[in-house]
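[job 0412] stage=complex_fold ligand=5'-O-[(L-methionyl)-sulphamoyl]adenosine status=START
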Amino acid sequence: MKFYITTPIYYVNDKPHIGHAYTTIAADVLARYHRLKSEEVFFLTGTDEHGAKVAETASKQGLEPQELCDRNSAQYQMLWDRLDIANDFFIRTTSELHKKNFQEFLLKLKDADAIYESEYQGLYCTGCEKFITEKELVDGFCPLHKCEPENIKEKNYFFKLKQFLPQVEKLIDSGEIRIMPESRRKEVLGLIKQGLEDFSISRESVKWGIEIPFVKNQVAYVWVDALTNYVTALEGDDFQKFWPADIHLMAKDIIKFHALYWPAMLLAAGLPTPKTIFAHGFFTVDGQKMSKSLGNAIDPDSLLDSFGSDAVRYLLLSQFPFGDDGDVKAGNFVIQYNADLANGIGNFASRVMAMAEKYFDGSVPEKDFGFENEIKNIWQEYEQALDKFQIDKAVEAIKKLNGFGDGEIEKTKPWELAKTDPEKLKKVIYGLLEAVRHLGIMIYPIMPQTAEKILSMLGQEDWKKQSLEELKEWGRLGPGTRVKKGESLFPRIK
Ligand code: MSP
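[job 0412] stage=complex_fold status=DONE, emitting structure tokens
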């Protein structure tokens, strides 16, 4: 089985904020989960470096566009390193690889007679990098970027979107292209019903872009350039192996490009369409979309300084259901960190390890199967959630396991059993140690460093050699294995 997952490629007119981190962490969680299932995974992210917005920002900062791209693309890559994002490739649209493959793609569209030349006049929002209609404006301004669009008149090449839309609609209707969540599928089908125009794939007045191979003085429209990254990144055998994408992940702002324009372009080029397009919601701050242009962005680096990578990954993903919008209150992060991580997972693991050290001198007692069924059910919930990309529900399953473990400690009171019933104590401690092992594996996609720490405390350094089926079995923890309480996993924060 293969699993190809992508994030949007992000604009380099500024450094990343937690909205970008949110999508990328979510993609990393899904990629790690599929690797855990022994699938062959290709996880792609990258930066979108052309277009008027980048060129304008560079000029304002007195930089060459390429300098700005290099600077900010590096900011993204550094942030992904700090966040333990394990992508298989990082695509930059200013790379030779992308330019060459993109031009080939354009020629395919041309050969298929899917492109024609025409004049265009319309309103353009540089913030969105798209033409915008009068209807979409609020008091004359773009509702997302709060700026006035430019009136543009140009000779452009156009893509015959209208010709391919009926086929795209059919693929969405039949579920061959799955648009998730359901509300987004309805929205996309609604857009088709309203009627869409062919779109321009070239720009005359913009200079910062990839040249169109069959005409002078025009560069590719940045969105056409950007969308193809999902195929230009797959060189040689990788294309055969991984295309079509199993899931394109993004927020709802760019669903139209991915669910309509992109499949239509692929159909025109004679290529298979993506299997799933999943658009999650927005992080909002006081009800407004968090964005660089609105100046209300939360800086991921300062969050990382306070909480560390695993906790930031957990905190961002557990704010609200994956798919919905949610308002972020930075002040809640500390409360939630202490509740779920310091007093939750961290405390549970350390209590169990301490008891194993105290009562059994750090050696796993004989096997017991007492908690087998409960754990099996929790695994089922967890897997069903992640198979449907419901990351928040997977977090619920993890919390349930943590809560179950805490509950067992309170119910069985090992400190009393140590005095009254040593045989029962063995069973209880074995069950709790196994519960910690299962918890360690379950948190791996979300909190990979903590997972490694927990599994190493349990003497399971070679856990990655086992399949998920094996890891999920109850009783893999061998009696006699040496276990030790290590450093505190999540020190409390005041
Ligand atoms: N460059 C285009 C995408 C081209 S993909 C072929 C673009 N770039 S962007 O930098 O604006 O990134 C948009 C994406 O960043 C969103 O779709 C989402 O994945 C993420 N987010 C940016 N702000 C966000 C929030 N406030 N909340 C949630 N996700 C956010 O569009």
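The pocket of 5'-O-[(L-methionyl)-sulphamoyl]adenosine is lined by residues 8-11, 19-20, 22-23, 48, 226-227, 229, 250-251, 253-254, 282-283, 289-291 (CB under 6 Å).
[job 0412] exit 0
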